[in-house]
Each structure stands twice: as C-alpha cells, then as structure tokens.
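Notebook p. 47: complex prediction with carboxymethyl coenzyme *A.
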Amino acid sequence: KGVVTLDPGYKNTGACESAITFLDGEKGILRYRGYSIEELAEKATFLEVCYLLIFGELPTQQQLNKFHTDIKGQSHVDEDVKRILDGFPKSAHPMGVLSSLTSALVAFNPSSVNVDSEEDMYKAIVKILGKFPVLTAWTYRKRLGLPLDYGDDNLGYVDNFVKMMFKKPSGEYNSKQTVVDALDKLLILHADHEQNCSTSTVRIVGSSHAGLFVSLSAGIAALWGPLHGGANQAVIEMLEAIKEDGGDTKKFMAKAKDKDDPFRLMGFGHRVYKNFDPRAKIIKKAADDVLESMGIEDQVLDIAKGLEKEALEDSYFVDRKLYPNVDFYSGIIYRSLGIPVEMFTPMFALGRLPGWIAQWREMRLKKEPIGRPRQIYVGENLRSYVPMEER
Ligand code: CMC
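Predicted complex, structure tokens below:
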C-alpha cells in the first residue's frame, strides 16, 4: 500500500474482477459467460448473446421475447436528433458522428443518467439497444443522402438493422439470409473482449457515475483509433494499397519490419493473444463462405491470404507472436456486403455495444470505486514564477 508501480498501457495490471468474458491468450480461448465463442458464433443469435453478456445466462424464449419487445418499444429517436445529424458534413467520419449522437441522446433521455437500481439500469439498457442501431443506420444513410427512417418491428434485431441500413427509397434491399447470418456472426464475435481499450474507457467513465450513454460515447471514441477498432478500416485500406501497388506483399512486409518506418501490418498482433485469435479463425472461414455464396471473387482476399501465409512463416512475426486478429478478415466480409469502408468501425461498435453495457452494469452493480490511476512524477522540482518581462 502506498507504493505506486509503473505499468504503461496496463500490460500487467488487473483493473477489476469480472465474470463476463474469459480470455486465455496463450491457448487462444475466448468464452462469454462460460460459453465458447466457437459454439456461440455457430448456434446463437446476436440478441441472445446480448442478453447472455448483460444478464449472465442464456435467455429462455419468453425472456428473449420480452427483451426484444422492450428494445423495440424504445427504438424511436427524437426527430430533433435528425437535425443534429444534419449539422454534420457528409464527409464527417461516422465514428465521430456516432459518438456525438450517442452523447446527445442524454439530452433527450435525461432519466437515463441517474440509474442506481437494476430496474432503472434495465430501462437505460433497452433504450440504447433500441436506438443505437437506428443511429448507426442513419449515420450511414446520411453519408449516402438516403432518407432517414425506421425498419420493421416484425423483423429480428439484426434483420431489422440490415433493412434500416440498406433499404432503398423504393423499399428494396438485399435481405438474403446469407447477409443477415454473416452480420449476426460478426456482431457476436465482436460482442465483448474483457478489459480492452474501449471497454476500460466505458468502465472508467462510468465509474464517475456519469451515466450509460456518455460512457458508451467515450467507448466509441476509444474504439475509433486504428490500433483498436479502427484497424478493420485500416486493414482494407492497406490491402487496397498493396493491390494498387501491384500486389507485392513482400515490400509491405519489409516496411512493417523496418523499425524506422511507422507502418505496421494492420490486422496483425494482439495485446493478449500470443498464439492465435480464435475470432480470426471463425471470420476467415465466414469470409470464404460469404464470398462464395455471393459469387464474389475478391483479389483483396487473395492478397490477405498471401500476406497471412508469408507473415506466419516470417521470423519477425513468429518471434513476436504476431498473428492475424479479428480485424484482419472482418473488413472483407463487410465490403462484400456493400458496407463502405468508413462504416466498418461503426459495425464493430454495434457489435461491442452489449459488451460495453454488460461491463458498465457489472461495474455499477458491484459499486466499484471511481477509476483513478496513479502516476510517477518525472517533471521539474519546485520553481519560482518568472514575470513575463524576465522570460
Ligand atoms: N506489425 C509490425 N510489427 C508489430 C505489429 C504489427 N502489426 N504489432 C506489433 N509489432 C511489433 C512491435 O513493433 C514490437 O516490436 P519490438 O519488440 O521489436 O519493439 C512488438 O511487435 C510488440 O508490439 P507492441 O506494440 O509492444 O504490442 P502491444 O501489445 O502494445 O500492441 C497492438 C498490440 C494490437 C496494438 C499491435 O500489435 C498493433 O499495433 N497491431 C496493428 C493494429 C491492429 O491490428 N489492431 C487491432 C487489434 S485487435 C482488435 C482490437 O483491439 O480492436
């Protein structure tokens, strides 16, 4: 007690006890509430996983129906929020827009802030689960100049999101089961990942009792960075750049290994996984399946596979235990579904929403203290103020 230890990036510091997600980086294991990610990705729906992460158990059909009904009942977004969205230029990055809109929701839902009881927490949770997909779809539609409206309450949670995103003014959209299934799987794979940068942000902002929506808004901002969720956009941009450059993967590998070059192989490496990322394995297979079922041949997928093979045989990457992570193949799926590259990270945010909520709820229910890291001061000793004319 009293001794401050230094651990930049919290590489070896546990910030909390959590019963939500188990991760073994050496063995490549990821479990939500004890269920393996492989089994959930194959058998569960995203909404079931939301319930599981937040409340700790898989829902019965009745519990799931009630949860979905409560979410649908809260999916409307105040018309004035459209005016806030309208104020953004079309070129604004969707992550900045989403973070701002999520924060703005507080003004329209002030009762969502002071939530001490489980009942009040539940109300705030179904509100954001209802409104966030609408905000995500609207952010995308605004970029394309499409009308902003709602989906169809008779559809499932993910089906409805697909409709809200892609519905043309004529009402047509690609509602193929392959699209919905692929998205459902991707959202499940992104749903939680214990104390990563954005989740820790949500917990630390929430620890000041600032309220769920602003905590999530901060989490979205943290996710935006290219070293975190923004990597899925950066991966496709990198693969496109390799393609444009003539497809010489070796040249880019050499850049990534050059310590004088800031370039990193995006979609490679992970703070915790030092063997393989189990999510990447599932996504790689899903990317193959989606492209095949949609009859798409994508040169970028071939470049990605070539790059992966080379990196896995290269001593630089092998020695540092750098493997493809979840973001390496997810962009290829998003692209084949017609989702533009700037929307990749918002898709990650939609997937991570239940994880952030579950972690925030756990933190509040356990009455965790305010997050307040210490530091080791390395600045000047006491100095006297120097008047302006003497400086
Ligand atoms: N390309 C080239 N070298 C790398 C890479 C990479 N992608 N990742 C790590 N290294 C090197 C790094 O230069 C260092 O080398 P050395 O020991 O010679 O100095 C060593 O590997 C260890 O790297 P680190 O930066 O200390 O590791 P970290 O745990 O702090 O960072 C990471 C983890 C994910 C930020 C990093 O691997 C990275 O920047 N990867 C690329 C971005 C990316 O794909 N991010 C998505 C992560 S998964 C999803 C998510 O979190 O949202």
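Notes: The beta strands are 21-24, 29-32, 35-36. The chain has 17 helices and three strands.
Next step: compare against the earlier run before touching the bench.
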